[in-house]
Write a structure and sequence with these properties.
Blueprint (H helix, E strand, L loop, with lengths): L5 E10 L4 E10 L6 E12 L1 H19 L4 E6 L2 H7 L11 H10 L5 E4 L6 H11 L13 H7 L3 H7 L9 E7 L4 H4 L15 H14 L7 E4 L3 H14 L4 E2 L16 H7 L1 H9 L11 H18 L4 E6 L1 H12 L16 E6 L5 E8 L5
Parallel strand pairs: 1-4, 4-5, 6-9, 7-8, 7-9
Antiparallel strand pairs: 1-2, 2-3, 6-10, 10-11
Helix pairs in contact: 1-3, 8-9, 10-11, 12-13
Length: 375
Amino acid sequence: MSDYSHVIVEADGGSRGNPGPAAYGALVRDPQTGKVIAQQGRTLGIATNNVAEYSGLIAGLELAREYAPNASIEVRMDSKLVIEQMAGRWKIKHPDLQPLAIKAQGLAPFGTEWTWVPRAQNAAADALANNALDGVDIPLTPAPAGTAAALEKEPSDLQKALQGWGPQTAPPTRLIFLRHGETPHTAEKRFSGSGGDNPGLSETGRAQAAAAAEYLTRVGEIDALVVSPMRRTRETAEAVAGKLGLEPVVDEGWREVSFGDWDGHTFAEIQQKWPDAMNAWLDSTAVAPPGGESFDTCARRARSARDGLLARYPGRTVVVVTHVTPIKLMVRSVLQAPMSALFRMELRPATLTEIHWYADGLPSLRSFNVEPTLL
């Protein structure tokens, strides 16, 4: 067993006849190296395609629980039905699928991401399922002992959602994300990531930070102030700290994504100088700018930083002074939207976004892109 902080579960299933002879395939992959940590392919007897797909998902989550018990998880499947149902966007109407979905939700850790991928990108799990159906000998990895008992004792996220949030529920952890104030790069719409020029606030940005700080004094008791290490966020946090009487805690996890060679350039300049790289970057959040960092990598970093705050400040209120990308990634994760949604959100300087995380693992977006100067 290794100390993986984040893993990808790939799963598939199918039947020859629907219903007919069925099997599933599942694997756990280290996204940093691409290495398969564990895999499993197994026949199911006679079943439908959808039952086989859910069985593959459950097997993948069980493997992740055994081999990467402390890791956050992204599930990738080419089954639109399973992904949309697990993300809570589609209802689960078929009685054969409901208990499987509940079991999968019970295995999925807090913050699991559900990602649909084209069939071609799920070839490894598909091959495991087909090899199982063809009788190819595949070493099986048993599920951890006690899994079934644990599922019976602890309700799944789906069950919790159906129960609702009653008055007896413990208070949520409130994370109030504050984007830094305007910089010269912000005003000129230039890419400004970590590792670049690291500009400070402009005069307008300082006024925006002061307005945000004044607004936060009216929010109520705030327990902690966390800040990205970059100059513009630290200067914004200074204004907040002065009003709230809190000492800013620097957390590397909340720094902006690195744009590498693109830093300091406008979108038009990048399209002209790096057209192929720009197109590839827009097509996939796994692609990084030359010398930079992908959105997927930034997402893993931000998830780890978020989980740290939830563990340290349960039921309390934390202001996080950070950047456009980490905030958008948090919102996208809560809404279970595709990664492409990042390009469809506008987040202005010195605006506030509030997300509540409940003790049962359910998040709630309370506000987005709120401008204190307009309140």
